[in-house]
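ASSEMBLY PREDICTION REQUEST
Request ID: AP-0331
Submitted by: J.K., bench scientist
Number of chains: two
Total residues: 682
Priority: normal
Notes: Please return the full assembly, not individual chains.
Input sequences:
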Amino acid sequence: MEKFTRLTTVAAPLPQENIDTDQIIPARFLKTIQRTGLGKHLFADQRYDEQGNEKPDFVLNKPAYRKAGILITLDNLGCGSSREHAPWALQDFGIRCVIAPSIADIFHSNCFKNGLLPIRLPLEICETLMDDARQGENARLTVDLEKQQIVRPDGETIPFDVDPFWRHNLLEGLDNISQTLLREGEIEQFEQRANRAWIPSTQGENS
Amino acid sequence: MHKPSSPRTLYDKIWDDHVVLTLEDGTCLLYIDRHLLHEVTSPQAFEGLRAAGRPVRRPGATFAVADHNVPTSDRSLPIEDQQSRLQIETLERNVEEFGVPYFPLLSRKQGIAHVVGPEQGISLPGMTIVCGDSHTSTHGALGSLAFGIGTSEVEHVLATQTLLQKRAKNMLVRVEGQIGPGVTAKDIMLAIIGRTGTAGGTGYVIEYAGSAVRALDMAGRMTLCNMSIEAGARAGMVAPDETTFAYVKGRSYAPKGEAFEQAVAYWQSLRSDDGAHYDKEVFLDAAEIKPSLTWGTSPEDVMSIDGRVPSPDEATDSARAERIRRTLSYMGLEAGQKLAGTPVDAVFIGSCTNSRIEDLRAAAAIVQNRKVVPSVRAMVVPGSGLVRQQAEAEGLDKIFRDAGFEWREAGCSMCLGMNPDKLETQQRCASTSNRNFEGRQGPQGRTHLCSPSMAAAAAVTGTLCDVRELMEGAR
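STATUS: Completed
Returned structure:
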């Protein structure tokens, strides 16, 4: 996984509630067997018209935000489908951090697994940051995971909470699977427990 | 986190029984008993295993079936959409290479993972069950802890049979009393989501309880748990009882004989203790719930069929007013209008929410001796080949076909429009599925979520309508 330490970039404001993962990437673009190249489908229904032309009003189509690295939204970001294609599409577009007053659970965890930092902050603070973001290219935000703070364009710092487990993983760019496999002995012991004897195998019907 | 003596919830008990180890910060390594795979969210996970030279740790705890983008037309023909075909062929190659059990497309046992799992007894009470799909919460109806995961987690489970997880909070949703005629599990769940909102369950696992939940059959309980994610909760569950045990007994992959008795003895301990703590409680009176449907583009946009859609003028703040305005415009509705009488272009009966035999029976009861209005495209997509077969044995297919419904093969179909079953621009659909998001059933499509009988009523009247008006003695 790609490390996340400190990021200074333009933030794109998208003041909508309940942005579901179908909005982030519609189902018709999930017919891929790869993780890469999904950035062009990010927010496809909001970003393009029926002929596939960019809608100039959509934030990510505006010149100032075409290279945005942060996305700021309103409540319940990433609700709905568990598709990891959503963080893959954000990541492929160049977004490394999402900020919202609330973020749906599965999307939240999918972000961490892809080196994309999800930050939950109170609505008022999100609105302040969104106002900063509205200033476009001249107003860069810095997200510092080490110090757990966001630095506004005027230098003011805003602290944020992050799960210590995922903070460590992001800072180090750790591969969870390798780490878990170090605990294989404990997993095997668990599987031998007597109270698990009733659990059948899926390899063949029981008679 | 819990002293052994303190009262625990159903969720706490299943969680505690699956913790392999706890890290310093409270993150747990949770053992996974069942892992269901489908073609859309697994290819990248298998690719990861291959790149690292890792095997599937326990193929005997894993099961695969293609459902999301399978065609629901004639299965003997090749799949026309090349990308869909590649995804399904990739799944077939992966299950072969990694030794994962699989129901092929031409098997009668193929179907939607969340219908197939319980139907086959692959999903059982007391288990931890995951799948790369948010509606995995469905299996919680059996009294299991079941939740959706992303593809990275799919790979983690394939490689280690575990997941890194933090314990969620407990929410109790209690529904007491008796539901009226024409009211179903779907209406109960829509009412619940209308109350909690789509983010109300974020961070929680929901336990559904109360006499109205106890009275539901397993299909109804699955409908409830299925849409837990629409309330924001990753998992929903119902404590296993005699209804559950009778449902599980004799299923192909369920334990048999002595092992079944041993299992039941354990399952009987899986109920919340008296005095167990819930971080949030919601209460609903079943008698107050009416046949319901959604008017907007979020599952929380719920109203009863005799109500009126909201107006931006009623909104308490400007953001809310703006959202109502935008939603009404997308849905092609006027502020304050009734939904009853609004013409529909399509009716979809299917999806992991409502495609079981009980759902098809309820819909057929309304359709019998009636015709689909000619301007409406109506389809029934059974949840599995076995549901389809059972419906045909009962003559339900004939009722649907004679009325003018398309009778299709099993799959996710128009719930998410990945296969050719899609709404056209601005078409209005009465749908038994779970999400009414913008573009979900096809770009610019307009979805009204409702029960199978309400969808059937829309097909035969050509408009959204109160199913009770078509039911003898219901009013």
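REVIEWER COMMENTS: The beta strands of chain A are 6-14, 70-73, 97-100, 117-120, 140-144, 149-151, 157-159.
SIGN-OFF: pending second reviewer
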